[in-house]
Structures are given as structure tokens and as C-alpha cells.
Amino acid sequence: MKDKIKVGLILTLCLLLCLVIQFFSSHVFDFIIFMLAFMGTIEFRKLQLKAGYPAFDYCPEIACFLVFVVSFTGFLCNWSAVTILLIVFAIVLVFYLTIFLGSFLVFPKDLEKDEFRLVSNMSIKQFAFFKANNTLACMAYPTLIMFFMYFINHISNIGLVAFEVNTAGVNMGFFGLILLFAICCLSDTFAMLLGCLVGGKKIFPKISPKKTLSGCLFGLLGGLIGSIATYFVFASIYPAVFEMVSFWQFAIIGVLGSVVSQAGDLFESYIKRKANVKDAGDIFRSHGGMLDRFDSIIFTTPYIFICLLFLFA
User: Which of 22, 99, 138, 146 has the most crowded CB, counting CB atoms within 10 A?
Assistant: First the structure.
């Protein structure tokens, strides 16, 4: 437990440093998002392979890089959110079709000799489709989910006129990221510390043996506190902007955000159980990899982006 607390404190300091970087340069923060997504993609592809769902080598990483290039270029050149979104999804679609058709039509001998195909007794076409779908899954998680963190980072400059008018004078990217981190970090902290202290009934013993009902409930409390605290801090600094939203809206956002955050943690635990491994990676040595530490934040990112649009657009 002491080691987990130490790692938690170090990661909290790292997140605070990232927020400081974002405050001074949103484009530098884009690169941080890319590095996290890239490391997470590598870990998830390896997890999928261990779980019996092989993907095409390096393809998810290439897709992650292309998404970053398009996003960075788009925000640098002031493209609209719709334009960037369409280009990114077009890249993923073309990439998916290319690896499926390319592997099936151009490199059938490689698939024919694949040991996994022989063991699973699939035809070449079936295996190409199976492997392409697994590659698509590795593109979707975490790259396409974390793609919305780019949008949060640049939410004040993505061509949403009503949003830009309603939030004029406020760094909404900074606010959105603080809201995201506050909900996820406090939800995880409350669930871990108070859940271990109180104990009680295990709710998903086959997926996450240590997760208890009390921990989940305390996690909701943590998300609630994180959201409300963020609201009050920014409302005191920018009363004119935040008078259009209410305390109760942020209370609901915090509770539901904690639900999404905990769902992200459970999803990652499920994948690790399928792969029969304790950790997704070893970048933090005995404390796991990038996905082990940031699974909740990754899952909650699109939710926070949608909430910001709903509140201020």
C-alpha cells in the first residue's frame, strides 16, 4: 500500500507538471498526449496478442502517429473540429481496409504460415479479417479515445462559435483537463484508500479481485468532490462565465464521471485477465505500465469533452 501511495504521489506531481506545461503551451501538451497514446498502444497490442487476439505488427503505432500528425497540424492551422474528426476517421478506415486487403491479397503466404492461424484452423480470408479487426481495436483503444484529449486541450479554438463566445477569456482546455484529472484521480484515490480501509463485498472478483462495493461508492464520492472543487475554484475566478452553469450540474458530472472512470479500470482489468498478466506493461517497473496508471483517464476523456460542449456550447 505504501508503494502504491508513493507512485500515486509521483504520478500526481507529473500530472500537475503536465497542467503547467499545458497552461504555457497547448502544443507541447499535444506531444505529451501523443507519447502516452503511443506507449498505451504498444502495451495494448501486446496484451491483445497474449489474450489470443493478434494484430498486425506496428500498424496501430503507425495509426497513432498519423492521428497525432493530423491533429497537431489541424490545431496549428486552425482547422475546425469537424474537419479534423473526418480526416482522422478517414485515416483509420483507409488503414483498416489497406491492412485487410493487403494481407489477404498481397501477402497470403505470410498468413498461411502463421502459427496462430494453423492452431485456430481459420481460412486465410477469415484470419486476415480477424487480425484486421484486432488491429482496429488497437487503434480505437487508446488512440481514438485519447484523440478527444486533443479536443479538450484545444476546445477554445476548434471552430465552435457559440462555445468560444460563451467562454471568452477562459482557458477552457486547462479547465477541462483539470476537471478530467480531478474526477479520475480522486475517484481512484477514494476507491483505493477508503475501499481497502472499509472492505466489504467483492463485486467483480473474477475481473478485479480487490474491488469492493464500498470502494466503488467511495469512488463516486471522490469524483463528486473533484468535480465540485474544480467548479468552485474556476467559478470564483471567472464568475461571469461560470454563472451559466450550476453546482448541481457539476455534481452530476462528477458522479457519472466516476462511473466512467471505474468502468475504464474494470475494462483494463478484464483485458489483463484475458491475457493472464498482472500488469499491462513495466514502464513503472513493479507498478505496471501506462495503461495500468492512466486507464481511468483514457476512458473518461470523451465523456468530459461531451460534458464541456453540453455545458457551454
Answer: 138
The helix/strand/coil state of 206 is: coil
Q: Are 156 and 172 in contact (CB under 8 A)?
A: yes
What does the domain layout of the chain look like in residue ranges?
2-312
In whole angstroms, give the CA distance from residue 210 to residue 201: 10
Closest listed residue to residue 137, CA positions, set 169, 96, 100:
96
Chain-centre distance of CA 247, in angstroms? 26
> Identity (one letter) of the amino acid at 291?
L
Give CA torsion, residues 273, 276, 278, 283, to 10 deg: -110
Residue 202, φ and ψ in degrees, nearest 5? -80, 135
Q: CA-CA distance, 162 to 137, in Å (whole number)?
A: 34
Using CA of residue 204, residue 205, residue 209, residue 213, what is the dihedral sign? positive
Task: For residues 289 and 118, give the distance between their C-alpha atoms in angstroms, rounded to a whole number.
Answer: 32
Cα separations in angstroms, 288 against 58, 93, 282? 22, 32, 5
Sign of the torsion angle spanned by Cα atoms 87, 88, 89, 93: positive
In the chain, the amino acid numbered 86 is L
Going by the DSSP 8-state scheme, the letter that residue 212 receives in this structure is B
Round to whole Å and give the CA distance between 282 and 292: 9
Tens-level pLDDT at each residue, the chain (313 residues): 555 566 666 777 777 888 888 888 888 999 999 999 999 999 999 999 998 899 988 899 999 999 999 999 998 888 888 899 999 999 999 989 988 888 777 677 777 777 887 778 888 888 888 999 999 999 999 999 999 999 999 998 877 767 777 788 888 999 999 999 999 999 998 988 887 787 778 887 888 878 888 889 999 999 999 999 999 999 999 998 898 899 999 999 999 999 999 999 999 999 999 888 888 877 776 667 888 888 999 999 999 999 999 988 7
